[in-house]
């Protein structure tokens, strides 16, 4: 092989390495775009359920959460309330917006919040029971207990059901629109290593530190970023939710198939705390 041929061989090898590297970078970028699109399409939590994403989402926000396909149970695509007084760094219940049902704002009691409890959601089609994770998400579980005992959730419709990509039933808005909240919000909790297997109850939100009253029930293992506070674990009668799921949903937006209002009745008649 002459020196000229050797030079051409080296240049060809260098060219092939560059092209291989470019192809690898393009493949990685394409994968990142797919993941980004999937996350954007995915929500609540909300809340939720939710939860967010998700499209319609958490409290005091009006646009569905993160994307075009079933989004997250939160409200990634929504804009946080400009009047909100809380931020991710703040701890406690901060007044914000107008309450869908005004029952006041709880005063946090650490001793009371630490006490474990079991809650039962009395749907018109049956009862769903779960344990509250009071030690892992005390502000969240204390808020839920406060609202439940004030009758905040009584006769409220679960307004969102997702059956593609993410699998959640989102509830907790007395207005039934996905835009209602309790008139206050609070920080996220229990996010380190958060996962959303079937039986999880988590908060829907509109971004960090915007939890309110909306939550979502995960009825099938779901992949979501750890942005939605997991605060409950279903212990009985998941079939109440799976029956609602089996009825399907009415797509609110043709561009987001599998994301809409439940076709079957999904009303929380009342909540019992024990």
Keywords:
alpha+beta, two-stranded antiparallel sheet, 4 helices, 13 strands
Q: What does the model show?
A:
- This protein is an alpha+beta fold and 274 residues long.
- It has four helices and 13 strands.
- The longest helix is centred in the N-terminal third of the chain and has 39 residues, at 3-41.
- The protein is globular.
N-to-C terminal Cα separation, in Å? 86 Å
Written as H for each helix and E for each strand, in order along the chain, the element string is: HEHEEHEEEEEEEHEEE
β-sheet strand percentage: 15-25%
Unreliable residue runs: 32-69, 75-87
Radius of gyration: 22 Å
Shape: globular
What is this structure, in a nutshell?
With 274 residues, the chain is of the alpha+beta class. A hairpin with a 2-residue loop joins strand 2 (118-123) and strand 3. The protein has helices at 3-41, 110-113, 138-149, 239-246, and strands at residues 94-95, 118-123, 126-132, 156-157, 160-162, 168-171, 184-185, 200-203, 215-218, 230-236, 249-251, 259-262, 267-273.
């Amino acid at each position: 092989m002459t020196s000229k041929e050797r030079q051409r061989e080296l240049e060809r090898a260098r060219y092939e390495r560059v092209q291989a590297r470019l192809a690898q970078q393009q493949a990685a970028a394409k994968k990142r775009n797919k993941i980004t699109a999937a996350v954007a399409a995915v929500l609540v939590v909300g809340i939720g359920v939710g939860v967010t994403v998700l499209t319609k989402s958490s409290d005091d926000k009006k646009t569905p959460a993160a994307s075009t396909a079933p989004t997250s149970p939160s409200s990634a695509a929504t804009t946080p309330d400009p009047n909100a007084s809380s931020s991710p760094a703040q701890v406690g219940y901060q007044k914000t917006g107008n309450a869908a049902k005004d029952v006041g704002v709880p005063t946090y009691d650490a001793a009371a919040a630490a006490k474990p409890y079991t809650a039962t959601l009395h749907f018109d089609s049956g009862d769903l029971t779960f344990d509250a994770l009071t030690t892992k998400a005390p502000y969240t579980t204390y808020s839920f207990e406060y609202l439940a005992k004030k009758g905040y959730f009584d006769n409220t419709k679960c307004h969102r059901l997702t059956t593609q990509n993410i699998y959640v039933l989102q509830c907790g808005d007395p207005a039934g629109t996905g835009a209602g909240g309790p008139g206050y919000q609070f920080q996220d909790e229990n996010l380190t290593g958060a996962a959303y297997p079937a039986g999880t109850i988590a908060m829907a939100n509109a971004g960090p530190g915007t939890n309110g009253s909306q939550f979502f029930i995960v009825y099938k293992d779901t992949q979501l970023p750890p942005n939605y506070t997991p605060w409950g674990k279903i212990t009985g009668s998941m079939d109440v939710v799976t029956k609602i799921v089996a009825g399907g949903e009415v797509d609110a937006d043709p561009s987001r198939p599998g994301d809409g209002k439940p076709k079957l009745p999904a009303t929380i008649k009342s909540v019992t705390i024990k």
